[in-house]
């Protein structure tokens, strides 16, 4: 099961327990059903404990701002040292892949603001883990935004 489907399934399960399952299928903010405000969400941790954290702002059925931050297991922000070992690039491939994920984070956020539709946020080549974390974190935030 893809991360997108898994995130939607987790969200659907939680809302089904609350009696709101019919509203879950649509994660397009422009379709309505979301209250104005700012909402936070987090993804599940990856194999090293890292996770994505998002803040989504909604106004009038429009996503007006999204801040997406990738964090290490200890809560620090992933930055230029992410993918290094003891401050050194041991593997160019590992480092490039790690940095591609970081570079994709603002792309995902901008695409969601542009489209208002989580399903329209496509994977950036080399950043599928970041994509999954973005989808999970936004689905978590939107779960709190249901009107």
Structural class: alpha+beta
> What does the average pLDDT come to?
85
CATH class wording: Alpha Beta
Instruction: Give me the CATH fold name.
Output: Sufe protein. Chain: A
Question: Radius of gyration over alpha carbons?
Answer: 16 Å
Helix content: 25-40%
Fraction in beta strands: 15-25%
Q: Tally the structural domains.
A: 1
> Quick one: how many beta strands?
3
- Poorly predicted segments: 1-25
With helices defined by DSSP (H or I, 4 residues minimum), what is the helix count? 3
Order of helices and strands: HEEEHH
- Order of strands, main sheet, comes to 1-2-3
Q: Could you characterize the architecture of this molecule?
A:
Helix 2 runs parallel beside helix 3 (128-145). Strand 2 (51-58) and strand 3 (63-71) form a beta hairpin. The chain is 39% helix and 16% strand. It is built from 3 helices and 3 strands, in the order H-E-E-E-H-H. It has a 3-stranded antiparallel beta sheet with strand order 1-2-3. It has one domain (3-145): Sufe protein. Chain: A (Alpha-Beta Complex). With 147 residues, it is of the alpha+beta class. Mean pLDDT is 85; it is low at 1-25. The protein starts with a helix and ends with a helix.
Note the topology:
Blueprint: H1 3-17, E1 37-42, E2 51-58, E3 63-71, H2 92-115, H3 128-145
Antiparallel strand pairs: 1-2, 2-3
Helix pairs in contact: 1-3, 2-3
What are the main properties of this structure?
single chain, alpha+beta, Sufe protein. Chain: A, three-stranded antiparallel β-sheet, 39% helix, disordered N terminus
């Amino acid at each position: 099961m893809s991360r997108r489907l898994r995130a939607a399934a987790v969200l659907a399960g939680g809302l089904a327990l609350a009696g709101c399952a019919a509203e879950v299928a649509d994660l397009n903010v422009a379709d309505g059903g979301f209250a104005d405000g700012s909402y936070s969400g987090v993804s599940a941790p990856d194999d090293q404990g890292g996770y994505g954290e998002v803040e989504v702002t909604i106004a009038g059925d429009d996503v007006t701002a999204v801040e997406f931050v990738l964090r290490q297991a200890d809560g620090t922000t992933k930055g230029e040292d992410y993918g290094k070992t003891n401050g050194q690039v041991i593997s160019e491939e590992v480092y490039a892949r790690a940095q591609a994920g970081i570079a994709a984070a603002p792309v995902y956020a901008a695409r969601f603001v542009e489209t208002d539709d989580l399903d329209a946020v496509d994977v950036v080549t080399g950043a599928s883990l970041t994509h999954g974390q973005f989808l999970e974190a936004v689905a978590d935030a939107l779960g709190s935004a249901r009107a």
